[in-house]
Amino acid sequence: MRVLARQVSEAAEALIVTWNAAAQSAVPRLSSLQLEALLIARRSPGINLTGMAERIGAAPPAASRLCDRLEAAGLLERRRTSTNRREIELKLTPHGQHMLEALAERRLVAISQVLLQVPAAQGEALLVGLRAFTEAVNVEKTIPEP
């Protein structure tokens, strides 16, 4: 299994490089952690700061500083919740949503350009393999830790 893991890792490197290169051309240029926070805010609108900190694996003060920077860039907004005035919810701004959509389009174009060089059958096999990998990751996330 270790040999297969090494081969998959090496083969995935080109995909990861292509994926990340598209993000490096984003304006504003974001760190991977900032981008992750925006994606979390998009998937979980209204997430609170504690939830964000847990999802990115950071302490609440570090998550707060990260959100400060995203808010200053006009990509994220904080609001007090209507149910608990002490709790802050996070939401993408229209500018943040547009930036993520533009990034997704840049990634789509970059990957499409590479796939033009890949025979159709191999592209389909790649997709089947990636879907199986995704399913395995999702199953792993649902298994409770001992």
Automatic annotation (TrEMBL):
Gene3D superfamilies documented for this protein: Winged helix-like DNA-binding domain superfamily/Winged helix DNA-binding domain
Signal sequence region: none
PROSITE patterns: HTH_MARR_1, HTH_MARR_2
Domain HTH marR-type: 1-135
SMART domains registered for this protein in UniProt: HTH_MARR (SM00347)
InterPro entries (UniProt xref): HTH_MarR-typ, MarR/SlyA-like, Tscrpt_reg_MarR-type_CS, WH-like_DNA-bd_sf, WH_DNA-bd_sf
Pfam families xrefs: MarR (PF01047)
Keywords: DNA-binding, Transcription, Transcription regulation
Protein name: HTH marR-type domain-containing protein
Source organism of the structure: Streptomyces xanthochromogenes
